[in-house]
Amino acid sequence: MCAPTASRTATAASWAPASAARSCRRRAWPPPSSWPAAALRCRRPPPAASPPTSRPVTRLPHERPHSPRDRRRSRSLRSDPAARTASAWLRPADAPPFQTPERSRLGPFAGPLLPRTATCGRTMDPVMKHPGYAVSRRTILSGSGALLAGAALWPRPLQAASAPYELVAGTGRQRLAFDGAERLARTWCYNGTVPGPLLRYRVGDRLDVAFTNRLPEPTSVHWHGLRPPNAMDGAAPLTQPPVAPGETMAYTFDLNDAGTFWYHTHFRSFNQQDRGLYGVLVVDEAEPPAVDRDLVLVLDDWVVDAAGRVSQTFGAIHEWAHAGRLGNVVTMNNADDIRLPVRAGERLRLRLVNVANAQVFALAFSGHETVVIAEDGEPVPPRRQSDVEPLVLAPGQRVDVILDATAAPGSEHAINGLTLTGEISFGRVVYAGEAAPEGRSGGPVVPLAPNARPTLDLEGARRIPLAMEGGAMGRMRGAVLGGTMMNMRELVSNGRVWALNGVAGDMAEPLVTLKGGETVIVEMTNDTAFPHAMHLHGMHFREVEREGRTVTDAPWRDTVLMGAGERVVIAFAGEGPGRWMFHCHMIEHMAGGMMTFVEVEEA
């Protein structure tokens, strides 16, 4: 029943389920065919396509046809080297042709596997309400609970100004439409919106933000991917005390890197970030690429209960010990079925940002080639990807792409996706109106100017091991916490289920201490059953080896995705002095002990 399929040319993600091969004979949840490695072994024709206008049957979490054992298996991940050099998971060689343009090209089975009738917000026309965020007809409304106009929902981007910009964290009510009914959900938000206001600058500007905490508990703001002075990094309590309720803190530093970044809470993040405390920060290049529109697309997931409410059950140890808090509703700009209007002939710059606590997204724009121009805010040589080569984003990662609108006016094209919990559809690209008479599509894609990065001395670098252990189905029997060796029962009672080098998030000693300008090589081994997205504050690194194979000319990144059982080697050089966090950006994993820090001393 299971046999290898022919390999193709596209590169697939390596986060395949550990149980994929042995699940071929029984339809577990989600179907193993929706995973990259599994499709290399399972050859099944897809079912007949549904009419383009039909909606899939909604299954709420308690209705999912799976056993707890199947669910554990489906979230258990490990590396599959074959998946990196094959694309049969996108469409098996022996599968029948796709019968409609709406059919997913991210797996041989049709239709999303997660509920798609859960929608957020009031009904809006499918048009762009803001030049930064792409707004759909379904949007989240935050603040006092009143309906907000599109212009208020997506505030004007912040430009450099003489007075500090006031950023306020507070509680709010979010209008959520689920299965045709509207309800109010409780959120925490910046300036009354989820995501927070789009902060936009030009490279060389100075960020000057007066942050006020109006939450019932302390918090902070981390500037993800930027390189501020250590005291401005926002990683409480390592780099600053958390901002207490009612207090204000000034964040001020120069923006020397252009790119797509984001800001979010960094104190009790497993709770605060998932409630909505995040926003996007864009630093424009001195000479931005010639595009017709520059849009931000925020990817997130939500845990919605059977009554259509956003679940408030944060901090469950089961989520911490497994893949993290994975939502049953996946959104792009707060819409589970976005309509992205374009005009034929346009050239768009799309800035994709994964703000989810733990979810990994792979997505592709049906009928459209994309050109990757930046990853994690760092320019890369333009790399063309077809509509069956997915863009993969781990939590915290960003990808900038150029998309040329080359299809016919009036047509619609699916935005297909794959997550750790199944196959989905984000929505559609909709060709509205007549063709753009002076659109920029079809021209050459000029590489972006690189940001200044240090020179790596790989020959003389120290090599530091980093062993990841713990979690469900792991082999860890104990770890150090508070200077004391504890067994697993004691660790769990203290909220710890993961460890790095045998230390469960103690934060007493650095992983490594290095001088400014000194290069270190960190050899990371994921000895767990789950993927991890390792994020380094204040610096960027380069991948130099993966699974024993040398990696050359890898891009500079601040977050790297590792599959279960995988070994990845990175190199970076010390930059700004101070203590810089290094942790898994599956937020529940960080909270459960998968965190350490790097100490940089003056050169």
UniProtKB/TrEMBL annotation:
<dbReference type="InterPro" id="IPR008972">
    <property type="entry name" value="Cupredoxin"/>
</dbReference>
<dbReference type="Pfam" id="PF07731">
    <property type="entry name" value="Cu-oxidase_2"/>
</dbReference>
<feature type="domain" description="Plastocyanin-like">
    <location>
        <begin position="486"/>
        <end position="601"/>
    </location>
</feature>
<dbReference type="GO" id="GO:0005507">
    <property type="term" value="F:copper ion binding"/>
</dbReference>
<dbReference type="Pfam" id="PF07732">
    <property type="entry name" value="Cu-oxidase_3"/>
</dbReference>
<keyword id="KW-0560">Oxidoreductase</keyword>
<feature type="domain" description="Plastocyanin-like">
    <location>
        <begin position="296"/>
        <end position="410"/>
    </location>
</feature>
<dbReference type="InterPro" id="IPR045087">
    <property type="entry name" value="Cu-oxidase_fam"/>
</dbReference>
<dbReference type="GO" id="GO:0030288">
    <property type="term" value="C:outer membrane-bounded periplasmic space"/>
</dbReference>
<protein>
    <submittedName>
        <fullName>Copper oxidase</fullName>
    </submittedName>
</protein>
<dbReference type="InterPro" id="IPR011707">
    <property type="entry name" value="Cu-oxidase-like_N"/>
</dbReference>
<dbReference type="InterPro" id="IPR001117">
    <property type="entry name" value="Cu-oxidase_2nd"/>
</dbReference>
<feature type="region of interest" description="Disordered">
    <location>
        <begin position="1"/>
        <end position="112"/>
    </location>
</feature>
<dbReference type="GO" id="GO:0016491">
    <property type="term" value="F:oxidoreductase activity"/>
</dbReference>
<feature type="compositionally biased region" description="Pro residues">
    <location>
        <begin position="45"/>
        <end position="54"/>
    </location>
</feature>
<feature type="domain" description="Plastocyanin-like">
    <location>
        <begin position="185"/>
        <end position="286"/>
    </location>
</feature>
<dbReference type="InterPro" id="IPR033138">
    <property type="entry name" value="Cu_oxidase_CS"/>
</dbReference>
<dbReference type="Pfam" id="PF00394">
    <property type="entry name" value="Cu-oxidase"/>
</dbReference>
<dbReference type="InterPro" id="IPR011706">
    <property type="entry name" value="Cu-oxidase_C"/>
</dbReference>
<feature type="compositionally biased region" description="Low complexity">
    <location>
        <begin position="1"/>
        <end position="22"/>
    </location>
</feature>
<dbReference type="InterPro" id="IPR002355">
    <property type="entry name" value="Cu_oxidase_Cu_BS"/>
</dbReference>
<keyword id="KW-0479">Metal-binding</keyword>
